Amino acid sequence: MQTTSRHTILLVEDSVSNALVYQNYLKDTYRVLVADTGHAALKLLAENTIYLLITDVRLPDMSGLDIVDYAQSTQPDLPIIVITAFGSVDLVVDAMRRGASDFLSKPFDRARLEVTISNILERQHLQDVVNEYQKTFERDRFHNMIGGSLPMQGVYRIIESCAASKASVFITGESGTGKELCSEALHAESTRSDKPFIALNCAAIPRELIESEIFGHVKGAFTGAATAREGAALRASGGTLFLDEIGEMSLDLQSKLLRFIQSGTFSPVGSSKEIKVDVRFICATNRDPLAEVREGRFREDLYYRLHVIPLHMPPLRDRGNDVLKIAGELLRKYSEDEGKSFRCFDDKVADYFLRYPWPGNVRELSNVVRNIVVLNDAETVTMTMLPQMSESTPGAAQPEGGAVDGGPGVPAAPFSDEVGGEQDTPPSTGAVSDDAPGVNGASNVEDRDSKAILPLWKEEQRIIETAIQKCSGNIPRAAAFLEISASTIYRKKLAWEKSHSPFGQD
């Protein structure tokens, strides 16, 4: 390994003759500072930038291991060689445990010393390379995305790898995971960063207008088209077109989009003139695109045109401590916006945030933090300030890795027997007297067991109503805990209101 005279070695040796010998070994390559006592060594360590420490164990005023302890507390990365004439296994183990990099037993020659130093400095160089790599690639944020978890590091690296390409990127992930932020980062990292970035949410635009939004229209193309209008495709020329929730696009429009992607040309609504543009496509969906293809809701040929580079945004529950990093950033921002004095979360809130499954991901976290800031004012967020979640016990949400009873990210045993009350009792089917056949036999036990079994629709109704009660009437939140859609609950409630039994009478 190449070194220079600027590299300084501190040699701590109380024997003058040994110090001169070791200094002679090193002087051609390094600048050598010599200390004959422990206190002198500590002073030199504090006043100089030391590249390597070599210390004897037995010194007149202290142990060389005390110097090792001091060096480790002030310069944890400093390579240290311990030398001693009284080598033993216990001493070596103790020195290495305290942070020494290697040891030498007296007497030793120049070659042994040089090999030891070379090995240590080579390891140090490799560690420096690793540390530099971590600084470069393990980031707590990337453009407007916050998070240093391993799943997010993978996202950042994919973005950097494909940003310069014109290849289409297909972003998947649950709602609220930051797919649009990911698309913005892709554009910002690309060579098109100085060109337009146009985002279009296909789910937020009426189906009859989405073609016009993408391709534009000419005057009089349809009722209400009083003037011509440029579409997103033309506005994004030279830059990036981001189509969010592309799964909401109708099949006939998907065929027109496919032609646009293949040829780079399109015609505004109501026009026969073709316009050619240079656009990089990024799309996103919170659905499983392959499942949509199998169900016939998404064109297979369009899927393969767009799904060149897949990029999955991980859910918040899989991102570990990113939850607290994002929550802290949101708390700072919203406190500043609202003129509040919040600074941090207490330990119970932090622990709850880490264990809560966040079905709404970052969007839900943002909603919760903003609610806290608007309705409260303090320096520290406590459990009593949490909206809705404060009505559940902190133990309800399971740690990362899944719940015991409810599956991954679902509160274990969300319903207790006592909540059901009288509705747990099935309708009476008649009294049973002590004289009835089998009243004292096994058949009586079977009768009692069968009476404890409720009809399926009744059990389903009880579970859903209990979940809604536990969520203070919040049906979407209850649906998230039950792992069903809110529309399913609304539909079942309507059926219960229309009929005593949605399945009819047997």
Automatic annotation (TrEMBL):
<dbReference type="InterPro" id="IPR025944">
    <property type="entry name" value="Sigma_54_int_dom_CS"/>
</dbReference>
<dbReference type="InterPro" id="IPR002197">
    <property type="entry name" value="HTH_Fis"/>
</dbReference>
<dbReference type="Pfam" id="PF00158">
    <property type="entry name" value="Sigma54_activat"/>
</dbReference>
<keyword id="KW-0804">Transcription</keyword>
<feature type="modified residue" description="4-aspartylphosphate">
    <location>
        <position position="56"/>
    </location>
</feature>
<dbReference type="InterPro" id="IPR058031">
    <property type="entry name" value="AAA_lid_NorR"/>
</dbReference>
<dbReference type="InterPro" id="IPR009057">
    <property type="entry name" value="Homeodomain-like_sf"/>
</dbReference>
<dbReference type="Pfam" id="PF02954">
    <property type="entry name" value="HTH_8"/>
</dbReference>
<keyword id="KW-0547">Nucleotide-binding</keyword>
<dbReference type="InterPro" id="IPR027417">
    <property type="entry name" value="P-loop_NTPase"/>
</dbReference>
<keyword id="KW-0238">DNA-binding</keyword>
<feature type="region of interest" description="Disordered">
    <location>
        <begin position="390"/>
        <end position="447"/>
    </location>
</feature>
<dbReference type="Pfam" id="PF25601">
    <property type="entry name" value="AAA_lid_14"/>
</dbReference>
<keyword id="KW-0067">ATP-binding</keyword>
<dbReference type="InterPro" id="IPR002078">
    <property type="entry name" value="Sigma_54_int"/>
</dbReference>
<dbReference type="InterPro" id="IPR003593">
    <property type="entry name" value="AAA+_ATPase"/>
</dbReference>
<dbReference type="Pfam" id="PF00072">
    <property type="entry name" value="Response_reg"/>
</dbReference>
<feature type="domain" description="Sigma-54 factor interaction">
    <location>
        <begin position="145"/>
        <end position="374"/>
    </location>
</feature>
<keyword id="KW-0597">Phosphoprotein</keyword>
<protein>
    <submittedName>
        <fullName>Sigma-54-dependent Fis family transcriptional regulator</fullName>
    </submittedName>
</protein>
<dbReference type="InterPro" id="IPR025943">
    <property type="entry name" value="Sigma_54_int_dom_ATP-bd_2"/>
</dbReference>
<dbReference type="InterPro" id="IPR001789">
    <property type="entry name" value="Sig_transdc_resp-reg_receiver"/>
</dbReference>
<feature type="domain" description="Response regulatory">
    <location>
        <begin position="8"/>
        <end position="121"/>
    </location>
</feature>
<dbReference type="InterPro" id="IPR011006">
    <property type="entry name" value="CheY-like_superfamily"/>
</dbReference>
<keyword id="KW-0805">Transcription regulation</keyword>
